[in-house]
Design a protein that fits this description.
By secondary structure, this protein is of the alpha+beta class. Helices cover 37% and strands 20% of the residues. The protein contains 14 helices and 14 strands. Its EC number is 6.3.1.11.
Length: 452
């Protein structure tokens, strides 16, 4: 690691970085870590964090003691966090020259920590590498801009753009509607260029002030890192312009949800050639088996695509999100869409992950499903024609409780991702859901308080 770390040291000095944010991702996708002066960071070459941060819920709580002590050392020991010199990003909005350095986590024996989302993705990528394959992904991130809201009991509202008016109606793909927030997105693109984030296009989506930013296709781990940094960058740019950016899966009643669509393909490492198309341009057997694996195992990994109770609101009827694992060519009503493309760009788009999903885990889960299909030669169903929303043969769990039970009961996930990870992830999500069920909603007060 000396040579890469020396390169990192040189980069920090050349950019006159005075502070380093040493971060890891928890299961929810929240960045946790420490902020250190650059000199201290270079001296210590990493940091230590309690293992317990990987079992924190989105509210900062922990799982039940019985599960906690079954998965972690009762002494609440530290894990060793080492910087990845290839995952370094400057922070353009910081007052002092500051950089984010993403870390990997290890135990005292040097073994990767099984609960770490980044390690989970690396484990899946190794499965591909051992077969001589490299997956290529291209994420599409949807999100809403809203007015800043101090009271979480109040519904989110559409922000005003440059015209001084809030958007009304559906403005899908409208250039003018996207241009309402030009000053904000100029900052976003400038900041992302400084950070080396590989953004492609900006699109106005269906909902009011709902946007989508696409990433260029590339290495799965690198893009998971980039999405992690991008979400924070987007929020910071929004705050600068006195609005908020949210990646909730369903932030506004009766408006479309926000997804993280994943385009995925595979190349042969030795030749660099894609393996999803035959010489005549038709779909290869490996491609069809990849789709078959997605169809078979997505119902088992759904909590990694839809991690919150809010995620499942995106799957309600008439919400424009597919609730199935059907596949079809150029069919956005299917959970798995095969876009029209050249043979070299043959790919499948997984339309099920929400924008609220942890990018490391969503990408890992999607690639694992496809991998299992390829190695087990799983045949897909017939491609769907027409609308797939109403089809019920290949539907998914519709509640987070049901989805978590499917994940917990799947032995093959424990075999490939690790028993500790599956148990820990399910436990964290159940703890979050129990916390949610304790909150009395405005709907209950409005319709039940004086009526029942």
């Amino acid at each position: 690691m000396n040579a890469p770390f020396d390169q990192l040291s040189t980069w920090l000095k050349e950019h006159r970085i005075t502070e380093v944010e040493c971060v890891i991702s928890d299961l929810t996708g929240i960045a946790r870590g420490k902020i250190a002066p650059t000199a201290k960071f270079l001296h210590e070459r990493g940091m230590r964090l309690p293992e317990s941060v990987l079992l924190q819920t989105v509210t900062g709580d922990y799982v039940d003691d019985d599960i906690y002590y079954d998965l972690l050392d009762p002494a609440d020991i530290d894990m060793i966090c080492r910087p990845d010199p290839s995952a370094v990003y400057q922070i353009p909005w910081a007052i002092e020259p500051t950089a984010i350095v993403i870390h990997d986590t290890f135990d005292k024996q040097g073994n990767p920590i099984e609960l770490s989302p980044r390690n989970v993705l690396k484990k899946v990528l190794k499965l591909y590498a051992d077969k001589g394959w490299q997956p290529i992904v291209a994420p599409e991130m949807e999100f809403y801009l809203t007015k800043r809201c101090e009271d979480p009991d109040l519904p989110l509202q559409v922000p005003m753009g440059r015209s001084g008016r809030a958007e009304s109606g559906r403005q899908s793909f409208s250039i003018d509607a996207a241009n309402e927030f030009d000053p904000l997105f100029e900052d976003v693109y400038d900041w992302c260029e400084i950070q080396g984030l590989d953004l492609d296009t900006l699109i106005h989506e269906d909902g009011p002030a709902q946007m989508e930013i696409n990433f260029r296709h590339g290495d799965a781990l690198d893009l998971a890192d980039q999405i992690t940094v991008f979400k924070r960058t987007m929020r910071e740019a929004a705050l600068k312009h006195n609005v908020a950016a949210t990646f909730m899966a369903k932030p506004i009643t009766d408006e479309p949800g926000s997804a993280m669509h994943l385009h995925q393909s595979v190349v042969d490492i030795a030749t660099g050639k894609p393996i999803f198309a035959n010489d005549d341009g038709s779909m290869s057997e490996l491609f069809l088996h990849h789709i078959g694996g997605l169809q078979k195992y997505i119902p088992k990994v759904l909590p990694m695509f839809a991690p919150n109770v809010n995620s499942f609101r995106r799957f309600l009827p008439d919400t424009s999100a597919p609730v199935n694992v059907e596949w079809g060519e150029e069919n956005r009503t299917a959970g798995l869409r095969v876009p029209t493309s050249s043979p070299e760009a043959m790919r499948v788009e997984n339309r099920l992950p929400g924008a609220d999903a942890n990018p490391y885990l969503a990408i890992a889960a999607s690639l694992l499903c496809g991998y299992l299909g390829m190695v087990d030669r799983i045949e897909p169903s017939a491609p769907v024609q027409g609308r797939a929303y109403e089809r019920r043969n290949l539907r998914l769990p519709i509640t987070i409780e049901d989805a978590l039970q499917h994940m917990e009961d799947c032995q093959i996930l424990q075999d490939y991702l690790g028993k500790q990870f599956v148990q820990g992830y399910v436990a964290v999500k159940r703890a979050e859901h129990e916390n949610f069920k304790r909150v009395i909603s405005s709907w209950e007060r409005e319709f039940l308080m004086l009526s029942v």
